[in-house]
Amino acid sequence: MAPSTSFSFFFLFFFTFQYTILVFSTTTTQQRFKEAPKFYNFPTCQTLQHHPNHTCPMNAVHVAMTLDVAYLRGSMAAIFSVLQHSSCPENVIFHFVSAASQPSSFATLNQTLTISFPYLNFRIYPFDDDAVSRLVSTSIRSALDTPLNYARSYLANILPRCVVRVVYLDSDLILVDDIAKLAATSLGDTEVLAAPEYCSADFSAYFTPSFWANPSLSLSFSNRTRPCYFNTGVMVIDLQRWREGDYTTAIEEWMELQKRMRIYELGSLPPFLLVFAGRIAAVDRRWNQHGLGGDNFRGLCRELHPGPVSLMHWSGKGKPWARLDANMPCPLDALWAPYDLLQTHYALQA
């Protein structure tokens, strides 16, 4: 190898190594976040009516999110956006679920939230991710295989029983509308959850050919009114109905079958579709403008769907903070940036 070529290779290796360290350091406990401003209720907001155990005010908006170090930057932006656009931010209670296998992260997460949101009404719950890991199958993207990604299936077991209705949110989204409107979604007489549906999507693509070739499996959709794809990153859930129907067990049964014979490829989403597709209450699509992170392989830039926007969701491989750090943002990432509370400047930014 010529000397100039050796030098170029060494420089490229050194630059890549340093960049990797820089990105890693901003996605671990070395992150430092700014304090968000305090947001106050409008004069028309009701005073919270406390339950006797003081954990479940009757008229609060309960929001559930998973929380870990890897996605903490996205979570902080999501929380900030919820509070900023809420008419009654002091009436929003956050329920964060964190991996019990990482107790050292618990203190870091709690401290970070307290410093950036001193007035935030929140609680962090441990999730037995080790117990769930036995049910997790590999999928098309490693990030989808994290046991904490399945915590949304266990909210009815984790949250206090006095929490009847909760809005579940992923960490890679921001709201630009009042979350109370989403929380007030009608669930009808029997529906357990509500979410925007996308019936134009190819529903069959979410399951393997072996699933559709087995009548005992594929006929599970036969008695439903047009099962459609829905994204589980934004859901309104009636936890009381969930507990009564024992839907966590129903989801686990499909996960156990997946371990024996491969019937899907996409992590925690297909079990939800198997249990709930065609049986959910409708939500306007403005509440989940999803797919902004591109597909699960390349994460290419995407545009918003036609129509109004209340929530932007960077589902898919590409995350706005990673693309901004790499100085290769997509146009819509600029809409996420104002909610970024990270103190350091974007990596490689001039």
From TrEMBL:
Extent of the signal sequence: 1-25
Domain of life from the UniProt record: Eukaryota
GO cellular-component term (any): Golgi apparatus
Subcellular location: Endomembrane system
Keyword annotations: Glycoprotein, Glycosyltransferase, Membrane, Signal, Signal-anchor, Transferase, Transmembrane, Transmembrane helix
Entry membrane topology: Single-pass type II membrane protein
PANTHER family (UniProt xref): GLYCOSYLTRANSFERASE 8 DOMAIN-CONTAINING PROTEIN, HEXOSYLTRANSFERASE
Family: Belongs to the glycosyltransferase 8 family.
GO MF annotation terms: glycosyltransferase activity
Pathway: Glycan metabolism; pectin biosynthesis
EC number: 2.4.1.-
Classification lineage: Eukaryota, Viridiplantae, Streptophyta, Embryophyta, Tracheophyta
Protein name: Hexosyltransferase
Gene3D superfamilies linked to this entry: Spore Coat Polysaccharide Biosynthesis Protein SpsA, Chain A
InterPro entries to which the protein is assigned, alphabetical: Glyco_trans_8 (IPR002495), Glycosyltrans_8_dom-fam (IPR050748), Nucleotide-diphossugar_trans (IPR029044)
Main location: membrane
SUPFAM superfamilies per UniProt: Nucleotide-diphospho-sugar transferases (SSF53448)
